[in-house]
Amino acid sequence: MKQITPEFFATARGLSRAQGESLARMISLIMPDAAVFTVDQHKKISYWSPGAEKLLGFGEAELKGESCLTANRCVQCMRGCGLIDSGKVEAAPLLLHRNDGRTQAVLKYAMAYVSEDGGFDGGLEVLIPQRALAATDLPLQQLSEKYGLISHSPEMLKVLEMIRRVAATDIPVLIRGASGTGKELVAKAIHGESARSHAPFVAINCATLNAGVLESELFGHVKGAFSGAVRDHAGLFERAHGGTLFLDEIAELPFELQAKLLRVLETGEYLPVGAERPLQTDVRIVTATHKALREEVKAGRFRQDLLFRLRVIPIFLPDLQARKQDIPLIVRQLLKQQFTQGALPQVTESAMQQLLAYDWPGNVRELRNAVHYALVMSDGHYIQVADLPPEIQTSVAATQDTAKSPRQALSAHIIEAEITACAGNLTLAAKRLGVGRTTLWRYRKQSAIKA
Ligand SMILES: Nc1ncnc2c1ncn2[C@@H]1O[C@H](COP(=O)(O)OP(=O)(O)OP(=O)(O)O)[C@@H](O)[C@H]1O
């Protein structure tokens, strides 16, 4: 039989099965909205409270004697919940799948029963529903415009859908994507659509400060904590209280601070530098990285337990290179931001071809910079190949821009992207492109004949 770790046995002194079973019934009376259940030494369900039935939609009759994984359907549960290894689980955030397919955010607490010979003898588990918030019902198109996350690509539409879902919970989110793919925009959208939107969104890049300064920035310090600490300093956890703390480049968080962050996630408590008593915080943590954190764990640079805490919901942002159909749309959006009045400059077909051929290692940030550069260089009416930054001019052998008619300024790519954006509504697409409907129809016909 698997042995419980001596540390747990020493601290918890163990809960016997008989004690646990009556405790479970008591907790389910006191906390009728929580799911309370017990498992035997084989992790088969032995008690399932009415609250559990209400929360997850499974009845006791169908679950008794079944593996706990039948009712606790989630990625972390499949990996192992830690109950056998550490004897207890404290405030683990989970996203469970209910019997009816909907998801339910919970915080899980569990305590193992210890047999007389010190072995695992089952356990008592309590799942506390996380704040029941309605997912935002903002249509994806409006969500994308509200936060400037412009895209048509299926991958980005999935990201927008994820934002809508996770905003309704307090579950930690890890955003993975290369530099300039929009990680901070996604974090802001999650915050902005959540019930925390009235409280601050605070962001910090963990790669830019050394361990000492970062600790003081995150957790604050008290007067006299170190030379130069002439007054108390509120940390970001205090400033973000009630809101969202966005930790960018989380892979760079120094190892010694990883344990402190883990403590906040587990207990909501942290210790300002030099302080004697911990403070409580209520923040939602959203993290981002361009690195594979699993590799960082393997290399011994990142704590596995912290990874599991942070990566409850991962969101992946694709490189711009993998969604080039977004380029005309984003360019247009960037031009609109610069020109609030008057006609937008037209991007010539050759210039658009160069933009589409380029690899964009700096992703949308680089595209934004290129558009700003081109605007400075252009005559204000047309953006041509010669107006683009040099590295983009040479992305493919550019053809010379000789024509300057509006039709030639509109490439087939732009036309088709706009029509898709308008869900096939040619009148709207023509309006957004600044041409008449008949003209748009003629352009399309001519492009089709040329093809
Ligand atoms: N889909 C998009 N549509 C329009 N603009 C975007 C989009 N994605 C990113 N941007 C713009 O690109 C720039 C970089 O975005 P952001 O700072 O969110 O990227 P990031 O992934 O957090 O970058 P880094 O990792 O370097 O901090 C910002 O100006 C942002 O407004």
TrEMBL record:
Residues 19-69 form the PAS domain. Residues 149-376 form the Sigma-54 factor interaction domain. PROSITE patterns: PAS, SIGMA54_INTERACT_2, SIGMA54_INTERACT_3, SIGMA54_INTERACT_4. The keyword Ribonucleoprotein does not apply. Keywords: ATP-binding, DNA-binding, Nucleotide-binding, Transcription, Transcription regulation. PANTHER family: C4-DICARBOXYLATE TRANSPORT TRANSCRIPTIONAL REGULATORY PROTEIN DCTD, TRANSCRIPTIONAL REGULATORY PROTEIN. This is Sigma 54-interacting transcriptional regulator. The lineage of its organism: Bacteria, Pseudomonadati, Pseudomonadota, Betaproteobacteria, Nitrosomonadales.
